[in-house]
Hints:
Elements: E1 6-10, E2 31-32, E3 35-36, H1 37-47, E4 52-57, H2 62-67, H3 72-78, H4 88-96, E5 98-103, H5 110-116, H6 118-121, E6 126-129, E7 133-136, H7 142-153, E8 156-162, E9 172-178, E10 189-197, E11 208-216, H8 220-226, H9 237-246, E12 250-254, E13 258-261, H10 265-278
Parallel strand pairs: 1-4, 1-6, 4-5, 8-12
Antiparallel strand pairs: 2-3, 6-11, 7-13, 8-11, 9-10, 9-11, 10-12
Helix pairs in contact: 5-8, 5-9, 8-9
The chain binds uridine 5'-triphosphate.
Uridine 5'-triphosphate binds next to helix 5.
Amino acid sequence: MSIVKKCLFPAAGYGTRFLPATKAIPKEMLPVLTKPLLQYGVEEAIEAGLNTMAIVTGRGKRSIEDHFDISYELEHQIKGTAKESYLTEIRNVINACTFSYTRQVEMKGLGHAILTGETLIGNEPFAVVLADDLCDNKTDGVLSQMVKLYEKYKCCVVAVEEISPEDSNKYGVIAGDTIADEKYAKGSLVRVNDMVEKPDPKDAPSNLAIIGRYILTPDIFDVLRETKPGKAGEIQITDALLEMAKIGKVIAYKFDGTRFDCGSVDGFVQATNYFYEKGDK
Ligand code: UTP
């Protein structure tokens, strides 16, 4: 059993880039083919050996709780028919883990959402998945790769990917020193010493952007409590992680796999085509 057991899903954001679809439906419940984004994220966490899903929700997000629960009426209706198989995957998810929820009352940013989740996480290392970053890999999932890395280095791990310079203002961008580790491809591990949230291309410290997968140690909560609102007046996880990076406690990892930014219409369409072609229909 993995020493990382809990996975936090911040899912309280407004999803304004997907209005009007997200007016009454949480962004995390938008489906790629027949499966909501959040279910992909939960399945990735289960594959990584995690069994406790902690979800930070907000107003208008009740469909998330209903999705990860039995619908007796529906079960009764389709029992014994060919359609029963449509529910197999979600039933397996419900049986494989537990779900707990807390609400972020004011949307004060990703860092604040993670701090809100402290009550569900407690004093142990945990994963964070932003479900609108949909990841896929032929072998081990991204979170599974990161848990292995955590077990070796026992510090915060952020997943990064190379971006075009003009996209730097959409991401947290890192810089640091390459870690030599014979188990990993050259350049794929970086000891982070700088991090900037959504920099202009001219101010970006590198072309390595953080995507929505993190392994965090519980001392991040103390740092977050002290973190002042940053970019856009929100409490940024990037600012808190920079404090941890200053004492050498953050590794960036260039993961194996593909990521789709399903928080944007382009990324969502690409993901849909990708999974359709792959045959996940
Ligand atoms: P995003 O900025 O991508 O999500 O936050 P958003 O604000 O919902 O989307 P847009 O930009 O308006 O379209 C990244 C993740 O952090 C969560 C979001 O739900 C998303 O999963 N989040 C963000 C919170 O849970 N609380 C917040 O206060 C902000």
